[in-house]
Task: structure prediction
Amino acid sequence: MRRALAEEVKRSLRTDFIRIFKENERVLREAGWIVTDEKSPRWWDGVESIDELLISSILVQMTKWETVKRILQKMREKGVNSLERLAELSEEEIGELIRQANFYKTKAKRLKSLASLASSIGVEKLVKDEGMLKEIEGIGDETAEAILLFAGNVPVFPRSNYAKKVLSRVLGIELSKEEAKELIEELFGKDLFNLKLVHAGIVTVGKLYCFSKPKCNSCVFKELCKYYTVSRNETV
Ligand code: SF4
Result:
């Protein structure tokens, strides 16, 4: 399906996605994304370092982002917001620190493994190694790819259900998660800033508008979305 997209369509998608997301930085912020420098770790709202980004990637699973931010703040105040410091703590001590997170005991165990691995091979190396990341329980394809992109600055587009749903509706063709990923990587190549911006933007659209019953009238994508155009014509 994807290969059938004409070069002209791909060109306009490239231009439209970047224009729309840059024009709507405020909306992205509502969904927890900060549009900032290409290599900054601060794209995830409230995260201040690569270590915090890795810690929050474990904490956020089944937990609200506001709670993750509160835990990070507490860790900062206690001086344990780094993997090196967490590696020195026991699972029980980490559990106490992150008690506000859902499934905190499981997450304490995962953080301990992550911290130990990072201490032995180095954070900089770990965040660029997908295979090693996925050896840690709780880090699957999507989380590993998000870490590669936002912490390792590796130009990959993280696969996600949001990208699958939003891009399928926008293009009016059913895409798998892998096809959605391949399409964005084909459109934006190794452009780190645009890969980050487009991931943040598409997740924002998925989180704020593109539900089972989508809120198309408020959506930043409605001008180019096939689903919206077709459903609007049907109701006229
Ligand atoms: S316009 Fe509607 S269907 Fe299209 S991406 Fe936005 S919310 Fe989803």
Notes: Residues 157 and 199 are 7 Å apart (CA to CA). The domain at 41-150 is CATH 1.10.340.30 (Endonuclease III; domain 1). Residues 166, 169-170, 205, 209-210, 214-216, 219, 221-222, 225, 227-228 surround iron/sulfur cluster (CB under 6 Å). The first helix runs from residue 7 to 23.
